[in-house]
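A common beginner's mistake is to predict each chain separately and then try to dock the pieces by hand. The better habit, illustrated here, is to supply every component at once so that their relative placement is modeled jointly.
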Amino acid sequence: DTEVTQTPKHLVMGMTNKKSLKCEQHMGHRAMYWYKQKAKKPPELMFVYSYEKLSINESVPSRFSPECPNSSLLNLHLHALQPEDSALYLCASSQLPPGGGHTIYFGEGSWLTVV
Amino acid sequence: SQQGEEDPQALSIQEGENATMNCSYKTSINNLQWYRQNSGRGLVHLILIRSNEREKHSGRLRVTLDTSKKSSSLLITASRAADTASYFCAIELSYGQNFVFGPGTRLSVLP
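With all components supplied together, the output reads:
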């Protein structure tokens, strides 16, 4: 079983709604990630937090806003999304940021549907 | 593209047979990791192989890495129906802070 917990598992939201995806890990990892995955495609990196600071933003639209309140929590705030943003959103964590050869552990994901 | 490229994209075999999936990449890497993803679920880490390693085993899994050819293979021996899933390689680039997935291989193991 994964030690990265994501909530909610499923979310349906309208294009004018504001919602958040949440992620939690208690492995003491100092790097946390958000990935987006469309059907039959590989995960695509969105954001990386290293030591609670945003270190990578892969040119993600501002309607996605990440937040790392502390070393165990990672949020993804959603606002004014488009139907094409519907996807599986995966949270992940690793002991240290990429470059250190550490395994990245993934949560089960949050299925997002934008209507 | 820096990402790994996997082949085959889809593989269908009978239970008990071996399954081999390949991953190629274009740039210098720190390590390469293999993941499994059951339909609609999260990714499960299978094995990590570092750039100075050539082969690693874990149960029925065998991973090889050839940095001169910039390629890796994942062998699953004595496959089971429960091995049906998508398998992704992911490369950790040796520069920057990035971790990139290949397109994946969809494996179907028929009972």
